[in-house]
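Hi R.,

Here's the chain you asked about this morning:
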Amino acid sequence: MEKYQDYATSPGAETNDRTLQRLKDPFSDYYFICLDGKHIGAIRICHFETLCKLKQLFILPEFQGHGYA
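And here is the predicted structure, written out as tokens:
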């Protein structure tokens, strides 16, 4: 958030209510990104009629900048 100042579209700037709404979307699946058995992030995949899209990718701050994404 600090680096790109993307407050309009970044999931990091969303309210807790919007985040919870995304978690409950019936067309969304989430997968953890793990490193040595520890959850360091997650991805959100949305399923549409004829395709799937990677919608969000989250990496904990202490693991950002190391190429895990």
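One quick note: The two ends are 16 Å apart (CA to CA).

Cheers,
M.
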